[in-house]
Each structure stands twice: as structure tokens, then as C-alpha cells.
Amino acid sequence: MRPERTRPAEEAGERRARRQRGRNLAMLAVLGGLAALFYVITIVKMSGGG
Amino acid sequence: MSETTIAPDTRADAAADPLPAVEDFVALLKPRVMSLVVFTGLVGLVVAPGAIHPVIAAVALLCIAVGAGASGAINMWYDRDIDAGMRRTRERPIPAGRMEAGVALGFGTTLAVGSVAVMGLAVNLAAAALLALTIGFYVFVYTIWLKRRTPQNIVIGGAAGAFPPMIGWTAVTGDVTLMPVILFAIIFLWTPPHFWALALYKADEYAAVNVPMLPVVAGRRETRRQILLYSWILVPLTVLPWGLGYAGAIYGGAALGLGALFLAGAFRVWRDDTDRAAKALFAYSILYLFLLFLTLMVDALVPGARGAA
Known about the structure:
Structural class of chain A: mainly alpha
Structural class of chain B: mainly alpha
Distance between the termini of chain B: 74 Å
Number of helices of chain B: 14
Distance between the termini of chain A: 66 Å
Largest sheet of chain B: none
Number of strands of chain B: 0
Order of helices and strands of chain B: HHHHHHHHHHHHHH
Oligomer: heterodimer
Shape of chain B: flat
Helix content of chain B: over 70%
Number of helices of chain A: 1
Strand content of chain B: under 5%
Largest interface: A-B, 20 and 20 residues
């Protein structure tokens, strides 16, 4: 059995890792979304729709 | 110590190690405010004469939303001291210790520049200029200059919230004519009674953080009088799009009916100095603006409903 004193620190570390993972996924979604957005804008502009 | 007694203090934990979560960045954007801004921007797009490619229209709305969110983030950066002193705002990411102030400023500035740049490149320069003006007005004129200095903060600062339908209109037409100015004026004149109704029952909190809202500076009686006064100017103005032929009978009827209820609410606040009356007007004012713009949009979409637009 691990010492109980380390548990809050471990939990804080896990929370931090979860937050970091969430931020990474959000950044991936934003970058992917921006790439798709600029692609679609370019297609619309080149086809004379905008 | 049992496992159930280990209840980490999230505030202390966050202060020691502020790695903001995605939800904190979302909270910076003030999503509830953003939704009304996007909606009024959409109405501007729909009622404007002419055509716009659906993708470009969606990009315009996205830019309006992101620009509004950027303004909210920069506002939260600047107002972090007063946010910490008010119950309504002290759980925001910065005062709660979940985010460093500079992160919010960087986030807001990046979004502001990005939204204006994309609006200029994808939609048109006039809409981008109006978006930049809106963000600049909200940050510099309202947040930094007026909010802490004058009880007229809401009156003049309300212009920032009034620009979105004008931006939506300009995204389609590329210019500003009388109708978008009327739409601007409607939201501009709606803002004081809306916020002063809130300020009536939050006056103590505003006073505690030295924000000179009208009830704090001029008293409840004068605030109630001003609410009624602005409502009397607002309601006739909302009928103007119908009178000038920019909107049809659907909108005209709604503007009259909803306006009568708004006046009744304002009159009740003037007569009845209770929080209950002020809360009722505040809640109705949100519904009022939403329904007013919704009927304007429906009116524009129903064939033959509009007059000589």
C-alpha cells in the first residue's frame, strides 16, 4: 500500500494530464477546422461564389 | 485519512498549478452573450438585400462569434479585479485562479486579430472594419474607459453589442444604409433598460467593486425613471422598419405586441420598487430582443410578407 500523503499529488498529476490531453485534442480540432475552413473558402472564392 | 476525506481544494490547486482546461477557454468567450450576438448578426445577414454564398455567410457569422468571444476574453482580463469581488463573476477562470491573466489576454488578442483578418479576406473589408471597430469599442471605450468612470457606461458601451446586425448586413451588401442603422439603434436603445433592470437588483454588488452603475450613483428612483424613458424611445423605433417598408406586417404586429409588453414591464418597474419587477423586466428583455429579431427574420423569409424593401 502506498503512503496516503502521495495520493493528492498523484491525483493532481492525473488532473493535469487530463487537462493537457483535452487541450491537445482541442488544438487539433481547431487547427483541423481552420485548414478545412481555408480550403472551403478558397474553393468558393475560386469558383466565383464569394 | 480515508479516501473520501481527500477533497482537494481546486482553487488552491489551480493557483499552484494553473493549467487552464478547455472549458476555461470556452468560458472566456462568454458563450451566452455570444449566442445573442451571433443571432442578431444572422438576422442582419438574412434581411439584407442581395445574395451571399452560404459558406461565406457562415464564415461571416463565425468571425462575428469569434470577435465577440475575443472581446469577452479581453474584458475578463481587464476586469479580473472587479470580477473577483462579485458573486456573479468570481468563478470566472482568472479570479478563480484557474488561468493566468496574461493567457486570457493573449487568447483574446489572437482571436480578435484572427477574426478580423478572416472577415477581411473571406467576406469583405467593410465588414472586417466594422468588426474591428466593434471589438475596439468594447475593449477600449467600454471596458477600459467608461465602465469604471461613468453611470452612462451601459448607454455608450451598448453600441458594441449593437454592431453585429450591421456587420451581418454589410457582409452581404458591402455598405451601410438606413436599415442596418435602425437595427443598430434598436439594440443600442434596448441595452440601457436591459442592463439597468439587472443593476437594480445587483446594485450592492456593483457598489462593492466601485462600478458606477446608475442605481449606485443616481439611486433606484432615477434608474427606474430612465428605464421607462428609454423604453418609450425604444418601442416606437422598433416599429420603424415596418413603417419604412423594410419589413412587413408579421414584423410590424410583433413589434407592436412585444413592445406593448416591454412598456408594461418598464411601467411596472417604474411603479413597483421591488427586485421582482426588475428581474421580470430583465428576463423579458432578453426574450423581447430575441423574438423581435426572429420575427424580422421570418418576415424576410416569408415570400411577399415584406413591403417596399
